[in-house]
Amino acid sequence: MPAKIFTEVEYAPLILIVDDLLINIQLLAHALEGAYRIKFATSGQAALDIANGDEKPDLILLDVMMPDMDGYEVCRRLHEGPETCDIPVIFVTGKNESWDQVQGFASGGVDYITKPFDLPVVRARICAHVSLRKSERNLLESRMQLRELSAHREQVREDERKRIAREIHDELGQLLSVLHLQVQFLRTQYGEGDSTIDEKLQYMKGLLDQTQQVARNITSSLRPAALDLGIASALEWQVQEFVNSTGIQCSLHVAKGKINLDEDRSVAILRIVQESLTNVMRHSNASKVDILLDKQEDHWVLQVCDDGVGFNQCKSKKKKSFGLVGIQERALMLGGHATIRSAPKEGVILNVRIPIDENQGTS
Questions:
Q1: Under a CB-based contact definition with an 8 Å cutoff, are residues 305 and 360 in contact?
Q2: CA 71 – CA 77 distance, rounded (Å)
């Protein structure tokens, strides 16, 4: 089966051939000529240097028996490197015992070809693994694009919430205050001499008071004013609101010192806490919740724990829990991650780690 021939407009994959014998390199390079770009190395260290260079190979053909470092060790080091761990490695070697193949796969190889090899078979296997890697790259790029789109959407939503909250607070709030003063003026001028008018104006004043409270509630749900004072104040407000509305005991522990967080991180942490408390209120039957926000080395750590009924994590994965997915996505958007631990009758522990901006922290 001939290797796929790439047109001029397509990206020709880069194959790294690693063998201490030039004759083997020449044989493989000739077989792959025209379909792939080729680089070669005659030692394990040279292979690692190339793999860690600016252009990563799309696939590595790796000999096992080399004088300075055997292929298994090279593959292990590639697999451990954050920049090279996803490069597929095919062992091409004369070692054909079952144990050798097991060791090859254990070290991180994706395939194992023994010498003397059948070149059409080698080409077919290379083509299969290169295509698979291309598909994985496309999938990863799609995921990253979806994550960026999701992050942009969330940012737009938060900006819109902020704008609407400020308009309600400034514009509607001001109008309601003026109406309130006008009603009070009318009561003073005409209400004292006419009980019917006074009663109606008092009723109007009550409606205005209710409307002002509704406006304040909407503003707070869109974007709490306490957020302008920092994440600690926003969390204190949120905890108090939760206690007042549910009666569930809730304690907050925040890192000592002033916490300097940018807008994105502050909003993300507040939204995660809000979503967590909503889950507690709806599903946990808990009597107590503990919230912790602390600084650990180069990460902010947020933990939300409850003593509720918990849930079976294996079963929950089969269901669509968009609240939990939303929490994880918010953490991922900021380069962090969220983990959830739970079991029936053992409550829920949410752990979120978000990298600290090097220009921010506690002071």
A1: no
A2: 10
Q: CA–CA separation, 44 vs 49, rounded Å?
A: 9
Edge to edge, what strands does the sheet with 59-62 contain? 37-41, 14-18, 59-62, 89-93, 111-114
Report the candidate in 58, 52, 65 with the shortest Cα–Cα distance to residue 14: 58
Tens digits of per-residue pLDDT, 69-89? 999 999 999 999 988 999 999
**pTM as predicted:** 0.60
Task: Evaluate whether 28 touches 5 at the Cβ level (below 8 Å).
Answer: no
Cα–Cα distance, 64 to 220 (Å, whole number):
64
Q: Give residues with Cβ within 8 angstroms of 13, minimum separation 6.
A: 6, 36, 37, 58, 59, 130, 134
pLDDT band at 333 (very low <50, low <70, confident <90, very high): confident
* All residues at 6 or more sequence positions from 261 whose CB lies less than 8 Å from its CB, including other chains: 230, 231, 269, 300, 357, 360
Residues 213 and 173: their CA atoms lie apart, in Å, by 10
Strands 288-296 and 249-254: parallel
